[in-house]
Specification:
Blueprint lengths: L1 H41 L10 H9 L15 E7 L6 E10 L19 E10 L3
Length: 131
């Protein structure tokens, strides 16, 4: 009888913990994706032109690059900007992914900000451009 009363509470705690763990995992992936994209954008690829935003996005998303789309980050958006001129040129890459809560978003009755559904996770990395 006691287990029947506690089982739903324990299930909610375990599934809520898994949901939070998934959010932190997605934050980790977006951070690594922005770092890898910035590293790619900061290194010239043998030409005098820096990679375009589309090329950096392809590098982050496609199998030939980092392949983050294979990790079910289908809402991944990658933007690249350049500022300054050589030798102080800086490449900035922002990566955003959308997190849909499995459980916690359905119990957010009070509008608690960290668990709004959907939640956009964004990471930005800036690196000096090499030549």
């Amino acid at each position: 009888m006691e287990f029947a009363i506690l089982a739903p509470v324990l299930a909610l705690l375990i599934l809520g913990g898994m949901d939070l763990g998934h959010m932190y995992y997605m934050k980790y992936l977006t951070s690594n994706a922005s770092r890898g994209g910035a590293r790619y954008a900061a290194k010239y690829t043998g030409t005098d032109a820096a990679p375009t935003s589309a090329e950096v996005s392809d590098y982050v998303k496609l199998e030939a690059g980092l392949n983050y789309s294979a990790l079910n980050l289908d809402t991944l958006t990658v933007t690249t900007t350049y500022a300054g001129s050589f030798p102080n040129k800086i490449a900035t890459v922002s990566v955003s992914a959308v997190k849909h809560w499995w459980l916690l978003g359905h119990f957010n009755f009070y509008g608690f900000e960290p668990v709004t559904d959907p939640q956009t996770l964004t990471a930005t990395t800036a690196m000096n451009v090499e030549h």
